[in-house]
Design brief:
- By secondary structure, the chain is of the alpha/beta class.
- The chain is about 35% helix and about 25% strand.
- It has 11 helices and 14 strands.
- It has a 5-stranded parallel β-sheet with strand order 7-10-13-6-14. Strands 1-2-3 form a 3-stranded antiparallel β-sheet.
- A hairpin with a 2-residue loop joins β1 and β2.
- The protein is elongated, with a radius of gyration of 23 Å.
- The protein starts with a helix and ends with a helix.
Amino acid sequence: AANRAYREQYASGGEVVGLHCYEVSHRYSAPCDEAGETCPIARTRESGEPSRALHVHFTARGEQHEEVVTHPIPDASGAVGSFLETIRPMAGAAARASDEGFVGRSPAFNRMLELATRVAPTEVPVLLLGESGTGKERLAQVVHEMSARAAGRFVPLDCSGVTESLFESELFGHEKGAFTGASQRKVGLVETCDGGTLFLDEVGDIPLPLQVKLLRLIETRTFRRVGSTEARKSDFRLVCATHRDLARMVDEGTFRRDLYHRLSAFPIRLPALRERREDVPLLIESALRRL
């Protein structure tokens, strides 16, 4: 069985009964797990639990990334005899040339997006790892847009090269007269992103003295504006990014081990372009569109 939306999206409104899903949405002649993709139905059949995967589907609007979620449906005896499959378009990524957002469809790119779709609905802190230029901030925005906090603000802070006083002022805000030049009260980014997502870019560049304050913020969700004694609370989702090897920095004593474990609950590595050469034609066409 398939609803009208499925038939219109993948079969131009025609009938699909008697066909396999991989024939309709993928245009494959074999199951998707034999073509290099993960089959969520196969995983649900094996585990008896809901499963999700990221697929590239042929749709009425062309090829696009979509999240596939499967749920087992037990019969009267408790045995799983059928499955419910729900498909949702993924915002912020395109499997065809586009003048905005992420563009790609290579296996390395799809693996990265699948991890993002898996962690986005949770509140788990995310650590994005990759070389400069791989799109860490863009992926952080994708995680935010797919989360329950999408209606809140996405607030980025570049941690590279910031001094201790500037970092505290930007992150926590300050009161009027807290230091020379503080002519008025300033609301910090932590307070601004209440209900949304805080993105700390190049978190590996934060000096050790500030790492303690960041750890306390993560653990308690409380902070004080510079020059204030009043403790404030903020409810935010934390996403961090770095091009540095934080595990090695921990061993060298330049990054706190406890903070590293807090930040790295769910690491996602972004592939460099040399690891996704199949995407180069799409990226070129997308760049030409923007130009």
